[in-house]
Specification:
Elements (H helix, E strand, L loop, with lengths): L4 E3 L5 H13 L4 E7 L3 H15 L4 E13 L6 E12 L1
Parallel strand pairs: 1-2
Antiparallel strand pairs: 2-4, 3-4
């Protein structure tokens, strides 16, 4: 399952769209998009672009949202960061 996960970051949206489509076209049945913080909206955009414009057979499966407690390196404070996991499957 780790190999089926794509972490959304600062790259352009189309880079992630291509990554998802490449992964699915290489024989996998599902992909898990994961994003934290301000990248959550980008992950939602990626899933909708794929579903509406590129691959009509890919559907949005389970969506998980939550909060993780993050401790930065050298920082003593803990902070909460929201996350989303979007499953896309055939």
């Amino acid at each position: 399952m780790e190999n089926d996960t794509i972490f959304v970051g600062k790259k352009p949206i189309m880079a992630y769209v291509v990554a998802v489509l490449t992964h699915v076209n290489s024989g996998h049945d599902f992909v898990l998009l994961k994003a934290r913080g301000s990248m959550i909206s980008k992950a939602v955009d990626i899933s909708q672009i794929i579903k509406r414009k590129f691959s009509k057979d890919l559907k949005v499966g389970n969506i998980e949202i939550g909060t993780e407690e993050i401790i930065s390196e050298g920082d003593v404070k803990k902070r909460n960061v929201s996350y989303i996991s979007i499953e896309m499957k055939r």
